[in-house]
């Protein structure tokens, strides 16, 4: 029988959060988009398509983790919400090789800012006293907060 721990590990070690726990493939930006079921669990679009089944004259997607069923949207599995956090992680991983090849335009600024750490509040900020708020008194018109009259 399949143990719950086995869903999160393969022989090489733990799965990355950007891997589908059904097929162990990495999510991508095309056929293996990370789709979220109503229960909150995320799987790749290809695996969810295989889970889609008809029960009681309606299409359902049973979650392989918690067994809660998600009704299949009218447009099919591709209409399920993306898991935005996973999608953005996949997208940034795909863009990272291009970003690594770019020269750092602000490397001189980064080097100078690393030379002396900020250890105190800059002069001129927060030095003046903050005026005390004025609250209405019982005999007042009640407009003290706006007009400042006692």
UniProtKB/TrEMBL annotation:
Top-level taxon of the source organism: Eukaryota
Keyword Transmembrane helix applies: no
Region (Disordered) location: 94-116
Domain RING-type stretches: 20-67
Record GO terms (molecular function): zinc ion binding
PROSITE patterns: ZF_RING_1, ZF_RING_2
Pfam families xref list: zf-RING_UBOX
Keywords from the named record: Metal-binding, Zinc, Zinc-finger
Record-linked CDD domains: RING-HC_RNF224 (cd16565)
Alphabetized PANTHER family for the sequence: RING FINGER PROTEIN 224 (PTHR47454:SF1)
Protein name as it appears in the record: Ring finger protein 224
Native species: Chelydra serpentina
Source lineage: Eukaryota, Metazoa, Chordata, Craniata, Vertebrata
């Amino acid at each position: 029988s399949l143990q719950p721990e086995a869903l999160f590990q393969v022989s090489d070690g733990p799965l990355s959060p950007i891997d589908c726990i059904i097929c162990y493939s990495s999510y991508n930006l095309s056929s293996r988009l990370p789709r979220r079921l109503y229960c909150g669990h995320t799987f790749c679009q290809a695996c969810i398509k295989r889970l889609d089944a008809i029960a009681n004259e309606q299409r359902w997607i049973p979650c392989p983790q918690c067994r809660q069923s998600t009704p299949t949207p009218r447009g099919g599995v591709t209409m399920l919400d993306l898991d935005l956090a996973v999608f953005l992680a996949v997208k940034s991983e795909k863009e990272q090789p291009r970003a690594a090849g770019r020269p750092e335009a602000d490397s001189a600024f980064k080097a100078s800012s690393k030379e002396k750490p900020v250890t105190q509040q800059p002069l001129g900020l927060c030095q003046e006293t903050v005026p005390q708020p004025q609250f209405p008194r019982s005999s007042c018109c009640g407009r003290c907060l706006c007009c400042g009259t006692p």
